[in-house]
Amino acid sequence: MNVITPPDPARHPFLTGKPKRLFIDGKWVEAASGKTFDTLNPSTGSVLASVAEGDAEDIGRAVEAARRAFDGPWRRFKPFERQNLLLKLADLVERHFEELAALDTLDMGAPISRTRASRLRALGMLRYYAGQATAIHGETIENSLPGDYVSFTLKEPVGVVGAIIPWNGPLTATIWKIGPALATGCTVVLKPAEEAPLTSLRLAELCQEAGVPPGVVNVVTGYGETAGAALAGHPDVDKVAFTGSHLTGQKIIQASAGNLKRVSLELGGKSPDVVFADADLDAAVPGAGMAVFANSGQICSAGTRLFVEQAIYEEFTARVAAYGKTLRVGNSSDPETQVGPLVSPEQLDRVTGYLAIGRQEGARPLSGGERLTDGDLAQGYFVPPTVFADVRDEMRIAQEEIFGPVISAIPFTDVDEVIERANRTSFGLGSGVWTQDVSRAHKLARSLRAGSVWVNCYQAMDPAVPFGGYKMSGYGRESGKQHVEEYLNVKAVWIKTG
Ligand code: ADP
Q: ∠ CA 195-375-325 to the nearest 5 degrees?
């Protein structure tokens, strides 16, 4: 294992080396335009690397390569061969995990303690999809036609997949797209986010080392409005798997209309986290806190609308605010850091803008509420854990996704009332419930309109358990068997045997 402690850009093997080019058809190539863009370390604001700026022309080349690969020998790879590739890739990711975690930390600002902790999930996903590769099967279905007919289904890979991912967890987001593609026999053109493209490029190198054939996995770095839009609109892409904001999700759907490509969308949220007075408060305080403060709130399913039963509202919100103050905010490479910076100056503006809006709307900050600029923090994009009390349902900070470490705490008095108010949002990704009453836990689990309900925990994830949204949080599921189905077509075959 390469141990890099603490991650230092000057010592990181991937950052000290070669230029960061596009990975197309198994080769590292410059962007057709020759242009590059810089990616920053959000802890310090300094440039980490200059990366090729792919655009529509490069996307075109990558899609052609992916189509050739799909029609070529890859199509004849047996399930166990694809399984072996995924297992080899998992072993390589395991061997280089420290380096990959450091790269994620440097490029997007998640604390190194957090990126290191994603090891189990990253490896678990690759090995889960490896297992799925040999579990794909159709069905023989009895039919009622007069005469003798045999009818059965075949599952076939959907084809060339355009994968567009955000910056808030590049390592796991990349694996979440290429894992099911390799398991099913699809080919991929992946466009990472411009804010944090490096880990996807390093993973492309590992795919190559694992023996993934040329053209099966391609990575084109570039901007969303150019490279991303070209991928979503490309007439020879069969499916787009997108993770990002709902506004971009809407554009993806429009762009996909040209060839009616299949689309799966994992979008944003404004997830409710409901704390009842009977909850184990010692568990609920850090649980509800980290449901938002983890990754500086840059998690689509963050439990940002904290509904607290009136009887414990003052005590509980004060405790969550106090808990937030105990968290160490700092450079994401420091192993002691618990809350790192926001990813970019734009994200900093967005979050501090909402802090101002919250105050204007009359919410009461119990902790945080201002950008941190002490000492070295001034160079990065740091916002401390923030709790707003006295939030009302109609306030913008209770309705709009902030994507920062900001809790909007709202009191409630009654179970049916809180269910109705928790569901009064256009999103439906995650939701949390804290109670010791098992009947009430079941009632909320059934009533909350969200793709995940976490009871007495938050953000539990597993490669075998589906994750995705209701309403404007998107459609399609990632993880679990359903995720694999998203990458498959079903063909019905009829054979007249009489
Ligand atoms: P965020 O606001 O979290 O950055 P976005 O939805 O803007 O979320 O970005 C998620 C991904 O979508 C990124 O890879 C980005 O480059 C890409 N993207 C942005 N705009 C478009 C677009 N019009 N078409 C396709 N992809 C886009």
A: 80
Q: What is the pLDDT of residues 207-230, one digit of tens each?
A: 999 999 999 999 999 999 999 999
Predicted structure pTM score:
0.97
Q: Could you name the CATH architecture of 272-462?
A: 3-Layer(aba) Sandwich (3.40)
Name the class of domain 9-267+473-492. Answer: alpha beta
Question: For the chain, how many residues are written?
Answer: 498
- Tell me the pairing of strands 272-275 and 305-309: parallel
Identify which of 296, 9, 22, 338 has the alpha carbon closest to the alpha carbon of residue 169. Answer: 296
Ligand 1: distance of its center to the CA of 248 in Å? 6
Taking 90 as the threshold, does the pLDDT of residue 18 lie above it?
Answer: no
Pocket test of ligand 1: the residue of 58, 164, 168, 295 to mutate, having most ligand atoms within 8 Å of its CB, is 164
- Which of ligand 1's atoms lies nearest the C-alpha of 248? 6
**CA 361 – ligand 1 centroid, Å:** 29
pLDDT at 4: 54
Expressed in angstroms and rounded, the spacing between residue 228 Cα and the centre of ligand 1 is 7
What is the domain partition of the chain in residue ranges? 9-267+473-492, 272-462
User: Residue 310 pLDDT more than 80?
Assistant: yes
